[in-house]
Amino acid sequence: ILVQFTAYSTSYPAITNSNPSASEDDLQITEGTILGDHHVVEAFLGEGGFGLVTRCRDTKNNKTVAIKVNKSDPEILLQAKLEIFILEQLRRLDPDRCNIVEWNDYFLDGQRICLNFELLDQSLWDYIGDRNNQGLPMRELRPILHQLANALFHLGSVGIVHADLKPGNIMVLNHSESPVKVKLIDFGLACPASAVIPGDRVGTIGYCAPEVMLGIPYHEAIDMWSLGLVAVELATGVPLYPGEDDYDVLKFIIETQGQLPDHLLESGLYTDCYFIEDNYNKQRPENGQTLFVRLIKEMLALDANLRITPSEVLKHPFFHPGLSRRTPCTDMNSTGGQNLCSLSSNHRLGGQNSRGGKSSQQMSLVAGRIDSSPIVNDFLALAIRLATKYDALSALVFVVVEALSNGFCPCCSRFFSFKLVQRLVF
């Protein structure tokens, strides 16, 4: 009998990024401060446990650059030296062709190590925020996703794992351009794939692959998992797996993709922190959106060895030139559903579910408890129907993307992704 595991909530080691944030006051840096001997601070761009990122003017050539100022704490200094080692490896790559931030050099400011990078426009987080978190249409999302897959492909070619891929570490070069160009930044947690240490906690909560959270040996595939989550967030404007800690995220993963494979759970250093054994409960033609859902599922494969690679992403039919035009609403007739454009005028999605799902009466009762709007009820019913035709993860991504394409506001989209599918499909 295979041993099944069930997630439980109890006291367990907190595995979080707990470094306190730095501030200009901590580092005694203000606008006008001169770093090194010729970099004048003009503005503050970001901060973290490592220190600050500042916009500086180089007084020697009058160019504006981004300077990452690391605190003088011994552990942070060591991390900065490791980052320099990674950046030296990346000098073999063309930063523009490979969609990776250009690193100019480093210098010392007293005991602090300062890294000099090209100045970019804004992060993808800010880019989506400027659109009121409504997500991007497929025609805008496609080139961004292709560029990021290209970046991972080239990182893999030199044996580097980024280990912290998220919208905040992806920068837009010029938000006014179309299509936008992006570059991957922040190699503070990056490491050679040959030097990863099982059990090391890398990445950011909500974007980490299961093997990282469970303490399983990992490799470049953790970046593909993160890219899958970034892709969903670009399409919907909200994270697919929100959570305050790894336990919350693991719950979302299990609810949308089912139980993690036994061989992963059995090999995890931290499995006992989140799971207990349970021997009782065992358990068409494609358009742009269906291809997108298929690509996301391949990026979010629970088993890292089965996860799609960057080179496979670059060849995926989602990027076929014929799909560059605006993606129409999906015709669900071939799968027993309805054309989403007609949902508002036809509010009956009845019939008994042939796979043990809820009946139409049950659907309407559940939906009625959440929202009395007919169109919302239709999307609720569609979520259940999709989950029985495909799987919960496909239903979640598909319904949120369709809701946005049909004019739902970000609040409704958040409602769908956090509440709707979680409550009705599982």
Automatic annotation (TrEMBL):
<dbReference type="InterPro" id="IPR000719">
    <property type="entry name" value="Prot_kinase_dom"/>
</dbReference>
<keyword id="KW-0418">Kinase</keyword>
<protein>
    <recommendedName>
        <fullName>Protein kinase domain-containing protein</fullName>
    </recommendedName>
</protein>
<feature type="domain" description="Protein kinase">
    <location>
        <begin position="39"/>
        <end position="319"/>
    </location>
</feature>
<comment type="similarity">
    <text>Belongs to the protein kinase superfamily.</text>
</comment>
<keyword id="KW-0067">ATP-binding</keyword>
<feature type="binding site">
    <location>
        <position position="68"/>
    </location>
    <ligand>
        <name>ATP</name>
    </ligand>
</feature>
<keyword id="KW-0547">Nucleotide-binding</keyword>
<dbReference type="GO" id="GO:0005524">
    <property type="term" value="F:ATP binding"/>
</dbReference>
<keyword id="KW-0723">Serine/threonine-protein kinase</keyword>
<dbReference type="InterPro" id="IPR011009">
    <property type="entry name" value="Kinase-like_dom_sf"/>
</dbReference>
<dbReference type="InterPro" id="IPR017441">
    <property type="entry name" value="Protein_kinase_ATP_BS"/>
</dbReference>
<dbReference type="GO" id="GO:0005737">
    <property type="term" value="C:cytoplasm"/>
</dbReference>
<dbReference type="InterPro" id="IPR008271">
    <property type="entry name" value="Ser/Thr_kinase_AS"/>
</dbReference>
<dbReference type="Pfam" id="PF00069">
    <property type="entry name" value="Pkinase"/>
</dbReference>
<keyword id="KW-0808">Transferase</keyword>
<dbReference type="GO" id="GO:0004713">
    <property type="term" value="F:protein tyrosine kinase activity"/>
</dbReference>
<dbReference type="GO" id="GO:0004674">
    <property type="term" value="F:protein serine/threonine kinase activity"/>
</dbReference>
<dbReference type="InterPro" id="IPR050494">
    <property type="entry name" value="Ser_Thr_dual-spec_kinase"/>
</dbReference>
<dbReference type="GO" id="GO:0005634">
    <property type="term" value="C:nucleus"/>
</dbReference>
